[in-house]
Automatic annotation (TrEMBL):
Signal peptide: none annotated. The lineage of its organism: Bacteria, Pseudomonadati, Bacteroidota, Flavobacteriia, Flavobacteriales. This is Hemoglobin. Keywords: Heme, Iron, Metal-binding, Transport. Heme binds at residue 45. The keyword Lipid biosynthesis does not apply. GO terms for molecular function: heme binding; metal ion binding; oxygen binding.
Length: 133
């Protein structure tokens, strides 16, 4: 499938999010982590992701909240974020081409790097507090 258009509508975002998370759920490396954390709340999670990406890419302010806290305690490392990014990039490149598709990949990369950094920071902080107790 050759991507023909850029991300321009909420329907495009839903296609990206649904396709991406369908792959994530089946992925042997990161799928079990997501499936355990989200459980039977996938529809709720996907709705939140639609609003998040709609706000980021289409400047329709439908998402509010802080995306990091739910991820803070996940048992993940850089390799997990690398795999997440690999699936996201592959999905985006398969479905879309253009400036907003590039922006989605750029934002996803920055988010993955920031989440990885913050998770490491909080783990080290907790480890140091435990060692100093």
């Amino acid at each position: 499938m050759t991507p023909q258009t850029d991300i321009t509508t909420l329907e495009d975002i839903k296609l990206l999010v649904d396709t991406f998370y369908s792959k994530v759920q089946k992925d042997e490396f990161i799928g079990p982590i997501f499936n355990k954390k989200i459980g039977d709340r996938w529809p709720e999670h996907l709705e939140k992701m639609y609003r998040f990406w709609q706000t980021i890419l289409l400047e329709v302010h439908s998402y509010s909240g802080s995306p990091f806290p739910p991820h803070k305690q996940l048992p993940v490392a850089k390799e997990h974020f690398d795999r997440w990014m690999e699936i996201f990039t592959q999905t985006t490149d398969t479905l879309f081409t253009g400036p907003l598709a590039d922006e989605a990949k750029y934002r996803a990369k920055n988010m993955a790097e920031m989440f990885n950094y913050k998770i490491d920071y909080f783990r080290n902080l907790e480890k140091n507090q435990t060692n100093n107790s």
